[in-house]
Design a protein that fits this description.
alpha+beta; Aminoglycoside 3'-phosphotransferase, Chain: A, domain 2; 2 domains; five-stranded antiparallel β-sheet; three-stranded antiparallel β-sheet; 10 strands
Length: about 300
């Protein structure tokens, strides 16, 4: 959406907080239907995003979820750039300090990836107690293989190079149970690390979009990120994975189990009808599923 498409009363409420708007630079991308842009006034520029029940009800719940998380992270002195938020009618609006930056490259050059991984290690911290556990946001992920096993229309179980089942069906659910145990913990997780959630500010990364902030085991974040790296590069980043396993004292078998969880979860979601306003989401999820399962196949064979 563009700025002028927002309801007049909503734009007026935003300007009451910011001052008269001089210019709005639209920001396009990601998977949240609604408005997003850098709003410029006589004061500091802010990145503002807004959506409604009508435009994207799921997105609105995520914005409210991020609002709650950012308040707790601020109390714990975790910098997110959050400035303010409000609800008006069926709209939710969030504002953050604007940053002169672009998102990380989806092809993940080695130098950029290594700097992001270094930053994740350096910023590792205990999560605020009020944040939910990983299981709260990823219950569907850990249950996905079980759901697929009971779906009579699903027959695309992963196979090896010879076309034989990669694993017995029941073992996929067992891997999910292993991952749920292995990645429960008390570290702060972003839990949605992708290129479009990491800004590149002249050589330093800045993590944004904290809607899924939760408590778990710190290795979850770099492993999730490396799955997207595998998708972007077209090949599993085994060298970087070896470094993450060592630095986070994470079992290789636990990492494989988590990749299997992602494979099932993204497969399950990619089979759903496309949501309104997000026509590319299912294709993205299918690509993530394929990357995860290709990587699991490499690690099991």
């Amino acid at each position: 959406m563009e700025w002028r498409e927002l309801p007049t009363d909503l734009r007026r409420s935003i300007e009451e907080r910011l001052g008269a708007v001089v210019r709005v630079d639209a920001v396009v991308g990601g998977f949240s239907a609604g408005f997003a842009g850098v709003v410029r006034t006589a004061g500091p520029a802010l990145f503002v995003k807004a959506t409604s029940e009508t435009v994207n009800s799921h997105g609105r719940r995520l914005y409210q979820q991020e609002w709650r998380a950012c308040r707790q992270l601020a109390e714990a002195s975790v910098a997110t750039g959050f400035e303010w938020a409000f609800d008006r009618d069926d709209w939710t609006v969030l504002a953050f300090r604007a940053v002169d930056a672009g998102i990380c490259s989806p092809t993940w050059p080695h130098e950029q990836l290594h700097e992001v991984l270094r930053e994740l290690r350096a910023c590792r911290t205990t999560a605020p107690a009020g944040l939910p556990p990983l299981e709260a946001y990823f219950a569907d992920a850990f249950a996905a293989w079980g759901a697929l096993a009971t779906d009579p229309t699903f027959d695309a179980w992963p196979t090896d190079a010879s076309g034989n089942p990669l694993l017995p069906k029941g073992e996929w659910a067992a891997l999910s149970e292993r991952a749920a145990r292995a990645f429960a913990g008390h570290d702060l997780l972003h839990a949605d690390l992708r290129a479009d959630n990491i800004l590149w500010t002249g050589g330093a990364p800045l993590v944004i979009d904290w809607a899924y902030a939760c408590r778990g085991t710190a290795a979850f974040d770099p492993l999730y990120l490396l799955l997207e790296v595998a998708r972007g590069r077209g090949a599993p980043p085994e060298d970087e994975l070896a470094g993450v396993l060592k630095e986070y004292d994470c079992s290789g078998d636990d990492a494989t189990a988590l990749l299997a969880v992602f494979g099932g979860w993204f497969t399950w979601m990619s089979r759903m009808p496309p949501p309104a306003g997000l026509p590319t989401l299912r294709a993205f999820q299918k690509a993530m599923a394929d990357s995860a399962l290709d990587w699991v196949r490499v690690r099991l064979m």
